[in-house]
Specification:
Layout lengths: L1 E3 L27 H6 L3 H4 L4 E6 L4 E6 L2 E7 L2 E2 L8 E4 L2 E4 L2 E3 L6 E2 L10 E8 L3 E5 L4 E4 L3 E6 L10 E3 L3 E2 L2 H10 L5 E5 L1
Parallel strand pairs: 1-8, 2-16, 5-14, 13-15
Antiparallel strand pairs: 2-3, 3-4, 6-16, 7-10, 8-9, 10-13, 11-12
């Protein structure tokens, strides 16, 4: 199964035309209390499993019946490609996804070089074309749908930074844990 992603490629890789901008620093470490303080109270009262991504602290929290079950560092979208804030839900789950570049159609199969790692958990889809959108290295035009989701990454150094094209990168071992916890329809809230 193919996964189309707004997360086109890791930023910070050498560009052909020019050197990339400096890599943004990782988010500072925070305590569970600080992480939970940013969650809206109606989510704390929610029953069942709920994923909450805090873009500012770059943390993915897994809540079960309003209690913090797990917390993971995450890479989020860079300026101009921010991970979409709001209330969403898991739309699709793909083990060992095939990544397709949204603007040129190039595919990368499962394996160590796949930008999606070993798991894809899609939660957002936007079929509005993006014309001449700056990605930090070049301008891109995407005519098809772009999606955002949680996925692994072969580029561990990017986790904890704002460097993606809207997707949420997790350490490979973390995305595998999350994949086992969620199902299609699991609520996802992305905090600004």
């Amino acid at each position: 199964m193919l996964a189309w992603a707004a997360c086109l490629a890791p930023l910070g890789a050498p560009a052909l035309a020019r050197q990339p901008d400096p890599i943004p620093p990782p988010a500072p470490a925070i305590s569970d209390a600080v992480a939970l303080s940013r969650i809206p109270s109606d989510l704390i009262d929610d029953e069942g499993l709920h994923l909450v991504l805090d873009r500012r602290t770059r943390q993915l929290m897994v809540l079960k019946d309003g209690r913090l079950l797990r917390r993971y560092p995450a890479a989020v979208g860079t300026e101009g490609w921010e991970t979409p804030a709001g209330r969403h839900q898991v739309l699709e789950m793909v083990p060992y996804p095939i990544w397709e570049h949204p603007s040129n159609g190039k595919q990368v199969g499962p394996g160590p070089n796949n930008p999606l790692g070993s798991r894809w958990i899609g939660f957002y889809r936007d079929c509005t074309p993006r014309q001449n959108a700056w990605d930090g290295e070049r301008y891109l035009s995407v005519d098809g749908c772009t999606v955002a989701g949680f996925h692994g990454t072969p580029h561990r150094w990017t986790v904890g930074r704002a460097v993606s094209h809207g997707c949420v990168r997790l350490f490979e071992e973390n995305v595998q844990e999350v994949f086992e916890l969620v199902e299609v329809g699991t609520p996802v809230t992305v905090l600004p």
